[in-house]
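Hi Y.,

Following your request, here is the sequence exactly as I used it, all 319 residues.
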Amino acid sequence: MPTRLLGALALVVLLGQSTVAGAEVRVFVTNEKSNDVTVIDAASRAVVKTLAVGQRPRGVAVSPDGRRVYVANSNSDSVSVIDARDLTVLKTVPAGLDPEGLTLNKAGTHLYVVNENELAVTVLEVASMTIVRKIEVGKEPETAVLSPDGRWVVVSNETSNDVHVIETATHTVVKKIPVPKNPRGMRFTPDSRWLLVASEQAHEVSTIDMAKLAVVRSVKTGGNRPVDVSITADGTRAFVSHGQSGDVRILEVATLEVLATIPVGPRAWWTALTPDGASLYVTVGRANEVAIIDTRTNALVARVPCGTLPWGVAIADTP
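Below is the corresponding structure, written out as tokens. Let me know if you'd prefer a different format.
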């Protein structure tokens, strides 16, 4: 083979390796008392940066392309936009009163921000980060989740004890579904067929059939104050954090049977799985850290110090 051709092939290989090597999985943790975001490199489990944002940051979401991270600043009535690669705050914009949870639509063109004190969801157009819609929901709305098929955004309402189902195509509420007391975190199965809801004061997890838009099963977890739910990529197991009992309980999605209990610490709050599903990150508020669980062995394998009172966590597969 000619030397020139060999050189060209070598350059292509090197460029390809460089592109792959440039991709990083980063974990973004909001700290509601220190008013900042801790950024963790998932490979090394080391903190790589702390970013100052607004007052009392709580909800956090990542754009579908992994390039942007959105943080709800509850006491600043704003959302901060972070460049996930450069780790800089690009802008902070108004987002309604007391924003808490948030999620994006599947295309990444609209951001749904839950406003606890407005009993509403504020919809922002991502390109301009301007408000384009207000959607009335229940009392003390907590968070929002997107169905994997992109059809629904569902909002949990802590004191009206229901969830509101929003159709993303029209930004309208199509159904209000009663659930056990104090619903908080939720997660869809990968096929968008089922939605699991953690009800904190009922100490229960419920399954909503999205075809019927109704609860079909509610089960006590055996733990105290379930807060959030993460579900494996195959849709068979759910990881449920418990704030008062300080643990994560693994449930079989089909039956809600408890398979294992993993102690992690006081105020185990919000959760996120890495893209490969191998690790679960859990914010442990009273310990000012995140706990990392190996999902293959169901063992607690590491703890990473964060800011003061970590709340939310989201993971970006950063290009």
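DSSP finds one helix and 28 strands in the chain.

Thanks again,
Q.
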